[in-house]
From TrEMBL:
Source species, domain of life: Bacteria
Function, as annotated: May be an activator protein for the gylABX operon.
PROSITE patterns: HTH_ICLR, ICLR_ED
Organism, as annotated: Streptomyces viridochromogenes
Protein name, per record: Glycerol operon regulatory protein
Pfam families xref list: HTH_IclR, IclR_C
GO biological process: glycerol metabolic process; negative regulation of DNA-templated transcription
Keywords: Activator, DNA-binding, Glycerol metabolism, Transcription, Transcription regulation
A GO MF term: sequence-specific DNA binding
Length: 258
């Protein structure tokens, strides 16, 4: 492992998670190296456009080059490229916005966002990152991961974003088992008050979960008696078809108990 590259990556992560603005002293304290070393790394990162120094404060922020790198990642993301048409289909079928996400360490990362049809101004959530345990997308993904990886997620830090967030690993384990039975996960105001999500995992040709797709919207609309079951079936159906497009076998089927 190249130490300088590792330190540069840690600087970028610190700016992403604890920024947006951090000075040389703050960064040196956070990553445990000397200020001259951090300053030299920042100068190199700035020359490459990965960070920029704010005029007036002399503190550092993430640079525009990271956006280009992020867009390049999305363009090469196989799940995203295959999911665009299916996400639009699901949005039309349910009348709700659709997220497609992959697992990124202990978070889900939104790689595609299909807007709610025939609605007003909407803000794109592409690139949004949400703790796995507060998201139906994360729970649906975690449900079909290898047992060791699943244990790591359950035994690690569990985020609490609202009073509805589930942080009890026993309760979460029960929820994951339920997803394995029904093929979909529910989220009831666990990441944002007033919002709900219904999501199902998407599998690739290896049979492993490649990501998840789900509908997201106001809780009173999404989880109402009239819509909850209908939306869950729609999400599961589209996830199955998307999985087959990614090469998953016809063994992708749910033991439906709902």
């Amino acid at each position: 492992m190249v130490q300088s590259v590792q330190r540069a990556a840690r600087i970028l992560r610190e700016l992403a998670t604890h920024g947006p603005r951090l000075g040389v002293t703050e960064l040196a304290d956070r990553i445990g190296v000397s200020k001259p070393t951090v300053h030299a790394l920042l100068q190199t990162l700035e020359a490459e456009g990965l960070v920029r120094q704010e005029k007036g404060t002399s503190k550092y922020l993430l640079g525009m080059a990271l956006l280009r790198l992020g867009n390049s990642y999305l363009e090469t993301q196989e799940l995203r490229s295959h999911s665009v048409a299916w996400a639009d289909t699901l949005a039309e079928r349910t009348g709700e916005a659709v997220w497609v996400a992959v697992l990124d360490d202990r978070h889900i990362l939104v790689v595609h966002h299909a807007f709610r049809p025939r609605s007003g101004v909407q803000i794109p959530d592409l690139g949004a990152s949400v703790p796995w345990n507060t998201s139906a997308l994360g729970k649906s993904l975690a449900s079909f991961l290898p047992s060791q990886r699943q244990r790591e997620l359950l035994e690690g830090d569990l985020a609490r974003l609202t009073g509805h967030s589930v942080v009890d690993p026993v309760v979460l384990a029960d929820q994951l088992e339920a997803v394995r039975q029904t093929g979909y996960a529910l989220e009831d105001q666990e990441s944002t008050l007033g919002e709900a999500c219904i999501a199902s995992p998407v599998f690739d040709r290896s049979g492993e979960p490649a990501g998840a797709i789900g509908v997201i919207g106001p809780v009173e609309r999404l989880l109402s008696k009239a819509n909850r079951q209908r939306h869950a079936i729609a999400v599961r159906d589209v996830a199955t078809l998307l999985s087959r497009e990614l090469g998953a076998g016809r063994g992708v089927a749910w033991r439906v108990t709902d």
